[in-house]
Design a protein that fits this description.
Largest sheet: 4 strands, antiparallel
Shape: flat
Strand order of the largest sheet: 1-7-8-2
Structural class: alpha+beta
Number of helices: 8
Radius of gyration: 21 Å
Length: 263
């Protein structure tokens, strides 16, 4: 994986406001700042991308939906745009909730360098987790990546491989015409304790259980053997998580604005 200056980086990435190609000349003195509450950057993300191999553990914490023309898998972490219900304003992640790999790789990320047809390692230079003379250096005195940086790069490489596997999974579900459109609704509480008007909080794609039942035994066996069926069931089970999010929202609303990110 390349660590070099690039002029043709493409795309925008959730949570990364100032991505820069990792470079020993520019970042040789940077280090990771140890922080007991390192997830503040994720507090404004009400959805987070996940890879297909994360469906199992993620399903225990969030609804897993598919969104957009590309049917990208996302976990829903909040009912209001820009407000996570699992990250405190200080940057602590909810105890017991699964932390997506997309979040754990921050402040590192891979970016496409189109003119050279390669992926290069970048960091979010605006991150408060990085600072000159930080606790864990990114480069050693010889200008080589430290063990921490090497491990972070490996994590990004692995994530990229899983992202491609996820694309293949989505393409398979699309080819089998298993997607359908669904909606999720939330009924807020009025100040007097009565139920307010139901609000549609999401329209998304999900695997259709009815369509899944129409597949031939041979195709079902194929999905079972390649692992896709397990991931489909994890996704379907995760959709019960809408009720958990709604219940959490009601509880947070009852406690007042200072009690949670959802107001």
């Amino acid at each position: 994986m390349e660590i070099a200056q690039a002029n043709g980086l493409t795309g925008s990435v959730l949570f990364y406001s100032q991505p820069e190609p990792l470079n020993k000349e520019l970042h040789g003195k940077l280090g990771l700042v140890r922080n007991a509450h390192p997830y503040k950057f994720a507090a404004e993300g009400h959805v987070v991308p996940v890879t297909v191999t994360e469906f199992g553990p993620a399903a225990l914490s969030y609804p897993i939906i598919f969104a957009g023309d590309l049917k990208q898998p996302l976990v829903v972490t909040g009912l209001n745009a820009g407000q996570s219900m699992f990250v405190s304003p200080e940057g602590s992640y909810d105890v017991g909730a699964y932390i997506p790999a997309y979040v754990r790789r921050y402040p590192f990320v891979l970016a496409a360098d189109e003119p050279n047809g390669r992926m290069i390692v970048c960091i979010d230079r605006s991150s408060n987790l990085l600072a000159e003379g930080g606790d864990v250096p990114l480069f050693d005195e010889a200008g080589e990546p430290t063990e921490y940086t090497k491990n972070a790069i490996t994590f990004c490489d692995d994530f990229e491989n899983e992202r491609r596997r996820t694309e293949a999974f989505v393409n398979l579900i699309t080819e089998l015409d298993l997607f359908e459109t669904k909606e999720a609704f939330f009924t807020p509480m009025n100040p007097d304790g009565t139920a307010g008007e139901p609000q549609r909080i999401a329209e998304y794609f999900a695997v259709s259980e009815e369509k899944l039942k129409t597949l031939s035994p041979e195709k079902m066996a194929e999905l079972r053997d390649n692992g896709a069926l397990q991931q489909i069931y994890a996704h379907l089970l995760s959709l019960a998580g809408w009720e958990r999010l709604i219940a959490l929202a009601i509880a947070q609303q009852a406690q007042g604005p200072g009690a949670a990110n959802l107001n």
